[in-house]
Amino acid sequence: MKTYSKVYTYIYIVAVLLCMTGFTLVFNFWPRPAYSAVERRELAQVPAFSWQRLWSGQLADDISHWYSDTEPFRDQLMTASMTVRGWWGVSLGDDVRISAPVAAAGDDADDASPDESLADLTDLDHLADSAADGGQPTIDENARLADAGVIVVGSGPDVRALMAYGGSARSGLPFARACRLYQQRLAPLGVQVYAMPVPLASEFYTPQKALRFTRPQRPAIDGIFAALGDTVLPVDAYRALQQHTAEAIYLRTDHHWAPLGAYYAAEAFARVAKVPFQTLDTYETHTIHRYVGTMYGYSKDIAVKNAPEDFVYYTPTGVSYTTWFTPYSVSRDMHITAVGRTVRGPFFASFKDGSSMAYCTFMGGDMKLTEVHTSTPGQRRLLIVKDSYGNAVPGYLFHSFSEVHVADFRYCHRNLTEYVRQHAITDLLFAFNIFNVSSSNVARRCLRLLTQPDGQTWHRPDSLHHRTAHDSTATPVAAAASVTPSRDTTVAQPAAASSTPEPTQDSPEHPAEQPAQSEE
Fold first, then answer.
1. How far apart are CA 236 and CA 272, in angstroms?
2. Residues of the chain with pLDDT > 70: what percent?
3. In what order do the strands lie in the sheet with 90-93?
């Protein structure tokens, strides 16, 4: 009996040692991933050595972060974890469950005094001074959204993941103040400013029993419109979307709206701006099948992955247009560190079925300044200041304006006052989702764009990680650098050249072969 016991003990010890040895070999010598498809982000890179960072302890922290962030089989392990979590998730019954931490929207939501949040939004000179320092907000929109919590509804192929909202009727007052200051500053240049806050899908598709986990968004939008005054024109995307909730106006597996939702919002804007607008049947329809967006990683719910959807987008016909991009390199902290040369490229990138990059169809993502010249006659020139929701809007306005310029508030090196003057802009549209219009930090960042030095970049000597010309949720897209010749950039000071990373397997394989046949 004792002999058998010893044998089992030896077998157990050997098995444990083999497992430990196997894990040690895999986690230390197996190739480490550079990108997570589940989280839709680049993973940490090996930190560079410097004596200063060694003595400060920062190097050890960075090595620890890199080691844990790039563990082999990261996505496979996360998928397995999501599957297990799905068995134990908090369910409200009737195919409604909470798949990410989310607090009920109660009195503890952001109801800070509007006077406090507006007090520092009137001194434009002060904002200009602070634009160049480390206090500049570097907002990772997707991380902010994920923190809000996720409500998953439905089952099977109809699963929909919804972001909760926690703002109030006063949350958008700093944004409204920023819009008014834009109008005040740019009115002498002949510019009309428009404000278009866009609601999230949770406003229209949250079941009754889950409403306590998210706050209504209409009060925040109404609060913005009431505070705009008589000079800034409101664009009611909420009402335009509300009339089409039976259609696919929002993506089920992504935090963005669908291109169809952006079409209805663009139509509402064109009506307010009193410009021509084409009906959807004049556009060419394209479909990317088996799309699973950001909400799979945010919700950690395997049901979202198992419910892929069609990503349907539309390209204009009957109008010719030429697109120019000025791409950015950014640090790991999302600061612009270099500005690439202006290059000509396709406005619409193409992606294969199953690609998680489908929302980068428009301009290839966020990290660039975009300028589109159309064949539409007239002198109306539009500048769209936007977050990622705004990416899907410009393509519907090529029939409406002779030029369409697009600047992401997070990544813009130009002084917008100078940019407006230089390009004779006549109309400026803010196209932000409700999260960003509810943030006083976003309002401050937008105002800094009015006063920051033209050609503004940021440099950190030990900055190790750079990304170029792509969405913050995705791998690089080579649309901007893969096409056609460069031209003289309009940047006020010489821009540093930046190399565009090679396309990943989800990037357009032939960027020059675009479906938008009317692009010159």
1. 9
2. 69
3. 90-93, 96-98, 150-153, 160-163
Output b/e per residue, 353-375; b: 16+ Cβ within 10 A: eebbbbbbbbbbbbbbbbbbbbe
- 449: its two tokens: 């764009």
Residue 372: what pLDDT? 98
Quick: pLDDT tens for 203-225. Answer: 999 988 888 888 999 999 999 99
Q: Which amino acid is at 502?
A: E
- pLDDT bin (cut points 50, 70, 90) of residue 453 is very high
In this structure, the strands spanning 233-234 and 284-291 are unpaired
Length of the chain in terms of residues written:
520
Classify 429 in phi/psi space as left (phi over 0), alpha (psi -120 to 50) or beta. Answer: beta
One-letter-per-residue 3-state SS of 195-248? EEEECCCHHHHCCHHHHHHCCCCHHHHHHHHHHCCCCCEECCHHHHHHCCCCCC
A 10 A CB-CB count for 446 gives 24
398-432 burial, b at 16+ Cβ within 10 Å, e below that, comes to: bbbbbbbbbbbbbbbbbbbbbbbeeeebbbbbbbb
Phi, psi of 242 (to 5 degrees): -60, -30
Query: Minimal CA–CA distance to 201: which of 245, 166, 235?
Result: 245
Direct distance between the N- and C-terminal alpha carbons of the chain, in angstroms, rounded to an integer: 86
Q: Which residue has the tokens 């030896």?
A: 10
Say which amino acid occupies 310.
D
β pairing state of 150-153 and 96-98:
antiparallel
Interatomic CA distance for residues 302 and 32, integer angstroms? 24
pLDDT value of position 76: 66
Q: What is the 3-state secondary structure (H, E, C) of 372-421?
A: EEECCCCCCEEEEEECHHHHHCHHHHCCCCCEEEEEECCECCCCHHHHHH
Residue 344, pLDDT score: 96
Tokens for 338?
A: 């270099």
For residue 314, the cross-strand partners are 285
Give the separation between CA 138 and CA 334, rounded to whole angstroms. 6
3-state secondary structure of 316: coil
Contact 208, 426 (CB under 8 A): no
Tokens 């992606």 correspond to 351
Q: How far is CA 467 from CA 46, 88, 463, 485, in A?
A: 15, 37, 12, 22
In this prediction, residue 519 carries a pLDDT of 54
Give me the pLDDT at residue 303, please. Answer: 85
CA distance 407 to 424: 15
Strand partners, 96: 93, 153
